[in-house]
Amino acid sequence: MTFLNIAFPAASALPISQFAISSVLASLRPLLGLGMIATLMLVFKPLLIGVFRAISLLFSPAKTREQKSALRNLANILAIRRVANDLDRSSPNMAAELRALAARG
Q1: Largest CA distance in the chain
Q2: CA distance linking residue 52 with residue 40, whole number of Å
Q3: 58 and 79 both lie in a single domain
Q4: 3-class secondary-structure state, position 8
Q5: Tens of pLDDT, residues 73-90
Q6: What is the pLDDT of the chain when averaged over all its residues?
Q7: How confident is the model at residue 105 (pLDDT cuts 50, 70, 90)?
Q8: Which of 1, 21, 40, 63 is the most exposed place for a label (fewest CB within 10 A)?
Q9: How confident is the model at residue 21 (pLDDT cuts 50, 70, 90)?
Q10: What is the pLDDT of residues 25-71, one digit of tens each?
Q11: Are residues 28 and 67 in the same domain?
């Protein structure tokens, strides 16, 4: 300890305070970066949603009305056949009618 440490105590405490401040700033730097990214995402949210929607349409294009109708028809036919298979033992006549209904499509 020198005479200058007694005369200027702030100068001797400066390295410790610099270390404390730098450690606090080092821990806050990632949080600041995440905050900036979150802010940019909020500002450009409509643009990002549009880009993601366009990318999703590239990989799976929207189905036409006819395709949707055909898929719904197929699901209905499969459901009727499932019910017919369940009724096969208890009510064979009803199961046959349901199979005929499913065959008409």
Answers
A1: 111
A2: 16
A3: no
A4: coil
A5: 999 999 999 999 999 899
A6: 87
A7: confident
A8: 1
A9: confident
A10: 888 889 999 999 999 999 999 999 999 999 999 998 889 999 999 99
A11: no
79 in the same domain as 51:
no
Got the DSSP string for 41-90? Answer: HHHTHHHHHHHHHHHHHHHSPPPPHHHHHHHHHHHHHHHHHHHHHHHTTT
| Residue 103 DSSP SS3 | helix
Domain count, the chain: 2
Are residue 4 and residue 42 in the same domain, yes or no? yes
Whether residues 36 and 87 fall in one domain:
no
Q: Domain limits at 19? A: 1-62
Q: Are 84 and 98 in contact (CB under 8 A)?
A: yes
14 and 56 inside one domain = yes
Give the C-alpha separation, 51 to 60, whole Å. 14
